[in-house]
Amino acid sequence: MPQNLAQKIIAAHLREGVAQPGSEIALAIDQTLTQDATGTLAALEFEALGLSRVRTEVSVSYVDHNLLQTDFKNPDDHRFLRSMAARYGLWYSPPGNGICHQLHLLNFGRPGATLLGSDSHTPHGGGLAMLAMGAGGLDVAAAMAGYPFFLSCPAVLGVRLIGQLSPWVGPKDIILELLRRLSVKGGLGYVLEYFGPGVEGLSVTQRAAICNMGAELGATASLFPSDGQTRAFLEAQGRGQVWLPLAADAGAAYDRVEEIDLTGLEPLVACPSSPDKVRPVAELKDVAVEQVIVGSCGGGAYEDLMTLALALKGRKLAPGVNLYVNPGSRQALAQAAAASGLMLLLEAGASIFQSGCLGCIGMSQAPATGTASLRTFPRNFPGRSGTKGDAVYLCGPEVAAATALAGHLADPRELGPQAAVPPAPPVRPEALVPPVAGGAGVEILRGPNIAPFPQLAALTEDVACTVVLKVGDNITTDHIMPAGSQILPLRSNVPAISRHVFAALDPEFAGKAQQSAPAAVVGGENYGQGSSREHAALAPRYLGVQVKIAKSFARIHKANLVNFGIVPLVLADPADYDWLEAGQVVELKGLRQAILEGEERLTATVQGRALPLILKASQRDRQILAAGGLLNLIRSSL
Ligand code: MIC
Ligand code: SF4
After folding, report:
1. What is the pLDDT of residues 591-613, one digit of tens each?
2. Among residues 413, 429, 449, which one ends one of the domains?
3. H helices within 420-493, ranges in order?
């Protein structure tokens, strides 16, 4: 049987299960990445597993999210991560060196490997033909310890690319076109595999930018084949020896196919406040924009910086526009400098920031009240920029340049002929710290903000939960556990960060949940989309949330709920959503036994009324739920 590329990589890493869409499989993980905002918990979790060293081909601890140092908390966390890396055999990437996904692609990614990262944009690595997936920190800690990663085997959605991109149209427009067609839940349960004659002309950087935002479709991963472009990229990085050709077999089938004609694509923009609210920029020219930011894991590469710089060449920003540039990596900044792009940016009036996530996660760069901001970032969920009622638009560097020059959303095709980006100059000033031998004696440096991991109780036989909050469709983890410069520094302190759960939707949530524990939350479709942050599961659990009931769940969040012992229940009849409300008590008699016996259909009683529910969970998930979380289960088995 001819195989597609996803099937090949899955088969080569299969440790348990049968690789059929929807059935649980366990995959061996070759590489892991963590970043500081999720990495402190992952590090504490790894520590709790009691090993002396990581058991992967390579594991990297990046610092890129919590860069502001307004007090001791973030720098303490960085120091903690550096000492953990030295102790347990990880690479360490210090603050300012760049964003995890950009750096991992440049320095470690290799075709055919598996990568698990505690960040939802880990699929960025698919640009190098690796099966790269986002997961909660605990799953990544387990992978660092050599355990396989358990997931529901994805189906494969083939995206056939034909034609060629026109001038001023870029990779962001390809993925925005897919988001327009499929929506933020359209990729759920799929790996997106790109194939067809349009693939050849795309560079690895462009491919990675497309894979990056596959996360916004809810996909498990995204993949490109490994070909001449891949080889050229790896050779330029001095890593030609890891190259190998990889592609789907001739005649391989896909579970579903979408076709995109690149020639017909035009510059697109995602409107506030969801990445799938996509429209041609040509229709939005009346939107005034005061802030433009080029950067992020999916929009801050050398090619992005140079596309911007060359478009600005000899021109000036429109009056009143602030243009910020956040290089995706120190390397990208150095290369743009060596190619004279940095000078062009400065001359046009851009401000250059350090490499890191910055405004993408609300770590500074918040827009002014009532003004629109245009960003080459992957996400624009409400309030994520740090400003309440924000209006954030997403685009590629081409639209960003045209808009910065016009002061309103503008079509880059009106800028005249587009200059080609020169090949990246061969400069690589990385500051990566390699693992050291004999880390056992290294002291772990813990700041006062790093709280011990909370103890979670096992599931009780009967459960009666009070519904504390009812929310709508597509609730993001940014709604559940907000980020931003005030809250992110609390990532290594669960009791402190839990005060902010659902803060924007119900400022009283934390108190109410604690008072009425055990508590329940009711949600709509695609509950928990967005980031991989496990705090969106652990912090509610800490407050006493025991059950979440929704029309459907996003993949990573559902796995995180299970890992921290919150039972994720799906409404058997979505119409029941309408009569559920806050204050009701959901009674589940014999829940623990039903879970352990593998029951898929459960019936709760809510004010005398039967509520049919579905628990889609593997036998392993069920044991985790009964134990009150994965750490409890692992501890009891040691
Ligand atoms: C994001 O883009 O939402 C983040 C911040 O990178 C998160 C991780 C986090 O919350 O720490 C993600 O994508 O998983
Ligand atoms: Fe950082 Fe933004 Fe990328 Fe998340 S999406 S890793 S916050 S740059």
Report:
1. 999 999 999 999 999 999 999 99
2. 413
3. 477-480, 484-487
